[in-house]
Structures are given as C-alpha cells and as structure tokens.
Gas vesicle protein (Chryseobacterium artocarpi), 116 residues
Amino acid sequence: MSKNGKNTAGILAGLLAGAAAGVILGMLYAPEEGKETRKKIKNKANDLKDQAKNKYGEVSEKVKDQYGNISSTFKETANNVAHTMKDGYDKYKDQIVSKTADVVKDVEAELNDLKK
C-alpha cells in the first residue's frame, strides 16, 4: 500500500475512534436511565462498526485496483524489455555471424595463398 494510503487509513481509524469515544462519553453523561444509555451506545457502536466495514471495503477495492494497475504496468514493461533485448540479440547475432563468415573466407584465402 502506498504511503498516502497508509496515512489515509490511519486518519480514518483515528476519526472513527475519536467519534466513538465522543459518542460514548456524551451518552454516559446524558441524564437518561442506564438501560436506555446502554441501548444507545450499542446502537451507535453497531452504526460505527457498519461504517468501518464500508470504509474498509472501499479502501480494499482501491488497493486491489492499484495492485492490478501496477501489476499490469510491470508485466507490460517486462515484456517490452524482453522484446527489446531479443531484438538486440537477433540484430547483433546476425552481425556476428556475418563477420565470422567474412573472417572464415579471409582465413581460407590466406591458407590458399600459403599453399601456392
């Protein structure tokens, strides 16, 4: 995950934790019966849990998309490098074969001259 993604996740977690703490403290100091306060805390906790699940799903999808993009780009770049290297190899191989054939002809000519 990118540094920006980690920062976003940290900020999101901090905001959710702060909101939860604020809601709980507000409810504990509210002038209501304990049973009613506990019910509100439970409902609010469930709401926060659902929000956290939704945000996790969103962040998870973004990470998957980024991974797919990076993976695709890497594969494409690797294929391009491989093709470039193969093309270069083929080009230089042909040049070497040609030069080797020229050298062989020159050596054969020199040997024939020496035999005469």
Summary: The CA atoms of residues 39 and 95 lie 83 Å apart.
